[in-house]
Amino acid sequence: MIFAILIAVIYLAMNGPRSGGTHDVAVSGITVSPTQAQRGTLVEITVNVTNKGSTSESFNVSLTLNSAPLQTLPILNLDSGAERSLAFHWNTTEAASANYLIKAEAGPVAEETNTTDNTLTHIAYVRTKPTGQARAYVSPQNSSTTVGQDFAVNISVSNATDLYGWEFKLSWNNTILHLLNVTEGSFLKSVGATFFTHNLNATDQHIIVDCTRLVDLPEVSGNGVLATVTFHVEQPGSCDLNLYDTALLNSFEQSINHTTENGHFTEET
Predict the structure, then answer these.
(1) Residues 78-127: pLDDT tens digits?
(2) CB 185 within 8 A of CB 156
(3) Which CATH class is domain 134-267?
(4) Which residues share a beta bridge with 144?
(5) Biggest CA-to-CA distance, the chain
(6) How far apart are CA 168 and CA 209, in angstroms?
């Protein structure tokens, strides 16, 4: 009830009889903290407003997220030339994973003719919060075939949240196995365009494989294949397929906590 009366008072102040002078209010600044939020984070939005006119003004300041109303707060008796800050709070628990255009709008007040500075915008980003730990691993964990044959292993990931880019190194015994091919898996590229590259280090006999998305939405989460590596068996024997220096990054370019698991090859006799 008290808030409703307050809004009514502001409405009358804005629309009742006016004295002389100029009437001009503006949004002079907007800050968002944090601008990159995982769902459930409380985001604080500070809006600075200025009275650029010659008379005291009372008006409302409204905030929208992608054109949907978030909150409206009143400004009472802001003197000519004065500035005031308002703090808005956005609980992102129910927010969808998206990029949000935050728009702050002051007034307009009655008889205001210059409204070009009544709004300011800011971009904020909301993504899913991880649950549990991700895993990067060689699949199948144990491979076998005869000399002269080819076989393939996948480098896969499980329980990833908002995966945007990844990198790994894979090494093996090059007297036993010869690298034939490396191809990108479907996990990232099934949702949007990616940039994929790999490089063979002949000296240390390992490959470095990288991939990144070229768009950040929709999110890529869950389980899938990052890359497929194909070998030819040159000589009898067995060796580890050592997966190391792995990196998983989310769309905020933050590291995703994860474990790694190697594979193993055994020649069939």
Answers:
(1) 999 999 999 999 999 999 999 999 999 999 999 999 999 999 999 999 99
(2) yes
(3) mainly beta
(4) 266
(5) 99
(6) 6
